[in-house]
Amino acid sequence: MLPVGPAVKVTIHINRDTAAGAGFLQEELLKLLQESDVGIGGATVLHAYAGFGSNRRLHKADEGDVTGLHLPTLLYFIDTPEKVEVILPLLLEMVTDGLVEAHPTQILKSVAGREKVLA
Asked: Which of 34, 66, 68, 79 is deepest in the core (most CB within 10 A)?
C-alpha cells in the first residue's frame, strides 16, 4: 500500500505488438515491475481501441489484420519517488520504441480492503 504523500506516476506508451526478448514488451515490463526487488505496489496495462503514432497511420482494433494488432498500449504505475528513481533506468533501457513519461502526483488515500461481492 502506498503511503499518503508525494508520489510519481509513470506512463509508458508502446504498441501492443512491440517485441521484447522472450515475447511482447508490455508483458516484459509488467513482469519486471511485479518481480522487481524494488517493491512496486501495482501496475496496469490498458489496450486502446484505436490510435496513431508519429507515422500518422491510424490503427483500429476492428481492422482484423496485422494492423489491428499494432494498437496503442499504456502501462502505468504510481509509487514513491524513491522507488521510481530506482526502477526507471531499467524501464528506460527496455523501451526501445515508445514514449515514457513521469508526473509528480499526490496520494490522498490508499487502502486495501476486502472486495465486496453482492449476491
From this structure: 79
Does residue 13 contact residue 74 with C-beta atoms inside 8 Å? yes
The number of distinct structural domains making up the chain is 1
Query: Is 69's pLDDT higher than 60?
Result: yes
Selection from 97, 101, 100 nearest residue 20 by Cα: 97
Nearest to 41 by CA among 102, 112, 99: 112
3-class secondary structure, 112: coil
Would 100 be classed as within a structural domain? yes
Contacts with 76 (C-beta within 8 Å, 6 or more apart), sequence order: 9, 10, 11, 12, 43, 44, 46
Whole-structure pTM value = 0.86
Mean pLDDT over 61-85 rounds to 84
